Known about the structure:
Blueprint: H1 2-8, E1 11-14, E2 34-35, H2 38-47, H3 60-80, E3 85-89, H4 119-124, E4 128-135, E5 141-148, H5 153-166
Antiparallel strand pairs: 1-2, 1-4, 3-5, 4-5
Helix pairs in contact: 2-5
Amino acid sequence: MRLPAAWTGVATLKPSNGRIPLDNPYFGRSAGPLARTVADVALGMHIADWEHPGSDMTGRRALEAYETFGDLQKRTVAATSGYDAVLAPVAPVAAFPAEWPMPWGFDAGLAMPHIAFTLLYNMSGQPASSVNCGFTANGRPIGLQISGRRFADLETLRLTAWYEGARSVDVVPVFPS
């Protein structure tokens, strides 16, 4: 959610894992709203508070994968526990042509570097938001990621709303009416 938000100039919140139940969960997957403003994201979080039955993940392979994610989760939470929030770019690259499958075009060897800043918070279960913080020289949006402590979704959204209100007017996206 943060990558599309960063590349389109909108706001979003990746909530803490499990906050919005998914039919096919795994440690790196979560769902949340994308909107023009942080206030609309907050409203979307209220609307999205539904229940879905989860699917059972069984088998040795799934458990081994979960152990790896668990280790990454522990290390990320430990590394960020001394901070109320961590600010970083959402992506190391700006938006790319819609016809491309990835920011690097069709080069499968370079398919995943664009998730370098979002991966840790996807796997750790920490909430992380995106809000526009600037534009490239050719006008493409640049997203600021604000990640918070585990289960501090509301605090993370409040920090994002504060930044949205305090940022310079020249970095506020202009959306069509």
